[in-house]
UniProtKB/TrEMBL annotation:
Source organism of this protein record: Thermobifida halotolerans
Role this protein plays: General (non sugar-specific) component of the phosphoenolpyruvate-dependent sugar phosphotransferase system (sugar PTS). This major carbohydrate active-transport system catalyzes the phosphorylation of incoming sugar substrates concomitantly with their translocation across the cell membrane. Enzyme I transfers the phosphoryl group from phosphoenolpyruvate (PEP) to the phosphoryl carrier protein (HPr).
GO CC annotation, single: cytoplasm
Cofactor(s) demanded: Mg(2+)
One biological process term in Gene Ontology: phosphoenolpyruvate-dependent sugar phosphotransferase system
Known catalytic reactions: L-histidyl-[protein] + phosphoenolpyruvate = N(pros)-phospho-L-histidyl-[protein] + pyruvate
Superkingdom of this protein's organism: Bacteria
EC class (word): transferase
EC number of the protein: 2.7.3.9
Key words, A-Z: Cytoplasm, Kinase, Magnesium, Metal-binding, Phosphotransferase system, Sugar transport, Transferase, Transport
Ligand binding (Mg(2+)): 172, 196
Catalytic-site annotation from UniProt: 243
From-to range in the entire protein, with total length: 251 to 564 of 567
Name of the protein this chain belongs to: Phosphoenolpyruvate-protein phosphotransferase
Span of domain PEP-utilising enzyme C-terminal: 11-280
Length: 314
C-alpha cells in the first residue's frame, strides 16, 4: 500500500485499483504561472466573471483572447475548462448587469444572459475559441445554470458555432439533474456545481450562514441527485465532474466517485488530501461508501457512516 500511495502522490488521480479520476483545479483571477505550478491534471472550472470584475465596460474579444491565451499557455498540454460568465445581481459585472431583481438567485444569471445579451456570450465564446486555436490548447467550455435540455442544446450550438469542440453544461439546477440523460445527450460532458445544486435543491440561500445543515453537501437528497447524474453519465459514456466545494472534502470525494463522478475540481490546497484518499480506496470501496451515504437519514449520519467505514488514513 505504501508503494501505491507514493506512486500516486503525483500525476493523474486514481483509486487503489487504478480507476482514473481526473483531479483538477478551480480558478478565478489567480496568476496563471503560479496556478499552473500545482500538481493537477488541468483546470476543471475557470470562473471567468472573476477575470473581469474590475471592468466597467465589456472587454473586447481581443482583450479576452489575450487573457485566455495566457492561461492556456501556462497550462501547456493540460485541459482548461472555461465556464462562461456567471454574472447576476449577486455577482454584478457592470457590463452584464441584469438590473435589480428581487430574487437574484432566481433571476437572469449564468446562461440566462443569452436571453438578454446573446452577443455578449457570443463574443466570449469567440475569444475562447481564438485563444484555443492560437495556443493549440486542450479547451473545454461549459455554461452555468443550464436548467433544461433545450438550454443545453442552445449553448452547444452557440459554442460549436464559435468553433469549440468540447462543450458541456454545469448541472446546478435540480431540473437539469432530473433530466441529466437528456442534458448529456446534447453536450459532451457535465460538471456538477454542488454549491448551487444544494441551494436550489434544499431551497436554502447559500449566502446565509443561518442554514448550514440544509446547505451541507452530505445532504442525502443532494447525493441522490448526484447519483442520478452519475448513472446517466455511465449509461451514455460521458464524463461527469464535480466542481463545487463537495469535491474538496476527501471523504465526500470517495462517495462522489462511488456515485459515478469521473472528475473532481477543487481549490489547490485540497488536492493532496483528495488524491491520497482515492489512492487508498478501490472503486468498489467507493461504491460501498456511496451506498452508506445514500441510505443515511441525515448529513451528519451520512458522514459518520462513511467516516467509520473508510480507511482511517483519510
Ligand atoms: C457551484 O455552484 O457549485 C459552482 C461550482 O459554482 P459557483 O460556486 O461559482 O456558483
Ligand atoms: Mg454555481
Amino acid at each position: 500500500r505504501r508503494a501505491v500511495l507514493a506512486e500516486s502522490a503525483v500525476g493523474p488521480g486514481r483509486t487503489a485499483d487504478g480507476h482514473r479520476v481526473e483531479l483538477l483545479l478551480n480558478l478565478g483571477g489567480e496568476e496563471p504561472e503560479s496556478a499552473a505550478a500545482h500538481d493537477c491534471e488541468g483546470v476543471g472550472l475557470l470562473r471567468t466573471e472573476f477575470l473581469f470584475l474590475d471592468r466597467r465596460t465589456e472587454p473586447t474579444v481581443e482583450e479576452q483572447r489575450t487573457v485566455y491565451a495566457e492561461l492556456f499557455r501556462a497550462f501547456d498540454g493540460r485541459v482548461v475548462t472555461v465556464r462562461t460568465l456567471d454574472a447576476g445581481t449577486d455577482k454584478p459585472l457592470p457590463f452584464a448587469d441584469p438590473g435589480t431583481e428581487p430574487n437574484p438567485a432566481l433571476g437572469v444569471r449564468g446562461f440566462r444572459i443569452a436571453r438578454t445579451a446573446p452577443e455578449l456570450l457570443r463574443r466570449q465564446l469567440t475569444a475562447v475559441a481564438r485563444a484555443a486555436r492560437d495556443t493549440g490548447a486542450h479547451v473545454r467550455v461549459m455554461a452555468p445554470m443550464i436548467a433544461t435540455p433545450e438550454e443545453a442544446e442552445e449553448f452547444a450550438a452557440l459554442a460549436r458555432g464559435a468553433g469549440l469542440t468540447e462543450v458541456g453544461a454545469v448541472i446546478e439546477v435540480p431540473s437539469a439533474a432530473l433530466l441529466a440523460d437528456r442534458v448529456l445527450q446534447r453536450v459532451d460532458f457535465v460538471s456538477i456545481g454542488t454549491n448551487d445544486l444544494s441551494q436550489y435543491t434544499l431551497a436554502a440561500d447559500r449566502t446565509l450562514d443561518t442554514l448550514p445543515d440544509l446547505l451541507d453537501p452530505w445532504q442525502p437528497a443532494l447525493l441522490h441527485l448526484v447519483g442520478r447524474i452519475g448513472a446517466a453519465g455511465r449509461r451514455l459514456g460521458r464524463p461527469v465532474g464535480v466542481c463545487g466545494e463537495a469535491a474538496a472534502d476527501p471523504l465526500l470525494a470517495l462517495v462522489l466517485v462511488g456515485l459515478g463522478v469521473t472528475g473532481l475540481s477543487m481549490a489547490a490546497p485540497a488536492l493532496p488530501a483528495v488524491r491520497h484518499a482515492l489512492a487508498g480506496h478501490s472503486l468498489r470501496d467507493c461504491r460501498d461508501l456511496a451506498a452508506l451515504a445514500l441510505e443515511a437519514a441525515t448529513p451528519r449520519r451520512a458522514r459518520a457512516a462513511v467516516r467509520d467505514a473508510a480507511d482511517p488514513a483519510v
